[in-house]
Amino acid sequence: MYYSLVETARENGLNPFEYLSWIFTHAPNLGKPGYVSAIEDFLPGSAKIPQKVFIPKSKGTEPEKYAWEED
User: Fold this and answer.
1) What pLDDT score does 61 carry?
2) Is residue 60 in a domain?
3) pLDDT category, 63, cuts 50, 70, 90?
């Protein structure tokens, strides 16, 4: 089960350690004021996930053209 959570986090651009830490911190308090209110809020696509959980994307890493492309 943990492996699937880690791989799902990676596939969705989340830092697995921060994502799991956030889940394990908020899961026991589900529904309490100041915490997430529904189990769906733990899913990777949720708007409730804080920015610190996401892996920052560097700008300019995508080449303008690939090596095999011709003019």
Assistant:
1) 62
2) no
3) low
Structure tokens at 63: 């080449």
> Considering its fold, how many domains does the chain have in total?
1
Q: What distance in Å separates the CA atoms of residue 60 and residue 55, rounded to the nearest whole number?
A: 16
- What's the rounded mean pLDDT across residues 17-36? 91
Q: Which residues contact 48 (CB under 8 A, 6 or more apart)?
A: 36, 41
Domain that holds residue 44: 2-53
Backbone angles phi, psi at 29, to 5 degrees: -105, 20
Which pair of tokens denotes residue 16? 């697995």
Q: Which residues of 12-47 are buried (b: 16+ CB within 10 A; e: fewer)?
A: eebbbebbbebbeebeeeeeeeeebeeeeebebeee
